[in-house]
Amino acid sequence: MASFEADVQYNDWKGTCAADNSDHGSLSSMLLDSGQLAEDESIVALNFYMHYADRVYAHAYAIPLNTLTATREDRFSPVLAREIDFELTTQQFFKMFKRFDIVLTDPGLDIQGREYSVGERS
Prior knowledge:
By secondary structure, the protein is α+β, with helices and mostly antiparallel strands. The chain has helices at 27-33, 68-73, 90-94, and strands at residues 14-21, 41-49, 55-64, 82-89, 97-105. Helices cover 15% and strands 36% of the residues. A 3-stranded antiparallel β-sheet has the order 2-3-4. A two-stranded antiparallel sheet has the order 1-5.
């Protein structure tokens, strides 16, 4: 079964990501405007993939608004979501976000989420 976790062929790097919606449009508004998202749905996850080219291949996961509370409260059952596939240029994709932060770490060290201090900068 699939999960909401990033995974690539070799997983040489693993990490976390955080993003702020743009003040000039969002993923939800783009999908609503294109007719891919219904008014009674909410986007609960986004998966995107890039591979050398200037294209972003994305999957948004939507659930009915009336199931948001139950989904939040039930942490053990799989989330029943509708997958919405779309493709954008990297510029179109990143314009949906005001800020976008990705942290990748060596999975063999198990340091994801740990605090660190910088001893020297170059």
